[in-house]
Amino acid sequence: MEPEVEVRRKLLIAARHPYTVVRRFVDSWVKIYTGRSFTPAGDRREVVCEATSTDLEQWTKREDNPILRPDAATDQLDSFRDPYVYRDPVTGDFVMLVTTAQRDGLPRRSGALARARSSDLITWRRDGYFWAPGATFDLECADLFRIGAWWYLIFSTAERTHYRMSRDPDGPWLIPADDLFDDHWFYAAKTAIVGGDRVLFGWLADAEPPRDDGSRVWGGSLISRRLSQADDGSLRIAVAPASPGTEPAGGHRTMLDATNAFRTAPLAPANDVAMELPITVPTHGRFGMMLRTDPALSVGYRLSLDVGAQSMSWSVITPRGEVLVAQRPCRLDPGEQTVMQVTVADSVVDIIVAGSALCARAFDSRYQGSLVWAENTDLSFGEPRNLDR
Questions:
Q1: So what's the pLDDT on residue 21?
Q2: Residue 149 and residue 258 in one domain
Q3: Is there a contact between 108 and 137 (Cβ–Cβ < 8 Å)?
Q4: Which pTM was predicted?
Q5: What's 24's domain CATH number?
């Protein structure tokens, strides 16, 4: 272990990691954050620190930081970050969840959430593990909240943001049929109450170099999604509101006859779009949109919805074929009236259909072709409406 003075000297606020801000008194706020240091040999060390503020702008670090360290007997010292604080609904204590890894766990399955308790946000005592499933590596960016009779635990690992659900804030935790909020482009999501709704905030990864075949990098553009609760307690993504003054659903409908073929119907050409398209889910087949396409449909992007596979996907269209970028389960009930909500702005792609969401990148903006397509099915759709985003 490094000397205490060395640890303090080299602690820094790791802006890439989430922190928790808690109101202690009317005019006092507490920030609980990750402190990171490195040994002379270059080994990473992580601890939890605290700072206070009266205006949420100027912060004063505690002189006795850190307030919580990993337990050298049970925790790996290089993984102790992303503190999340909430109030125990029974005792009223403050409870802190911290991303860590068990020292005696398997290398790729040691991820756990350490737990600590405090009555005053000053003195913290370790209280074992909140959750140690032995299923994956670090459980990052934990979040815990309640909607109705269900509690939800959100965490990010293996390039995706997951959730679990329980009737009790201490578990046991159930895995829903679809435990993801998106595919691998969406990460590090946390929630907050906005206008009475539970809203999920995460980042859409950038790519380096910034092109369709670039590699995903850490961090990117903010993506927000309003959550809704299904009858079985599982979480779904709620659609965004249409812009004021746009035509309501139920107006003019277009029937695209593609019973035994591939057919398209044009939309207004554009590089960027923020629209919803009312549709009637067909009994079979595939359908969706093509955006930023050339006249020959040999370059661009495709949103595909597959009734048989109950899925949606985003792919890049190239002269040599299509390249799948992201894919998600999507519940498509034949005959259901629903909407495809699609936003493409610069390189950001954000799609919501039937309670499922998918985000990705689209860097090629040379063409403006936009169309609806269907294959081996008949598709009924309404007039596109602008989104208020």
A1: 79
A2: no
A3: yes
A4: 0.90
A5: 2.115.10.20
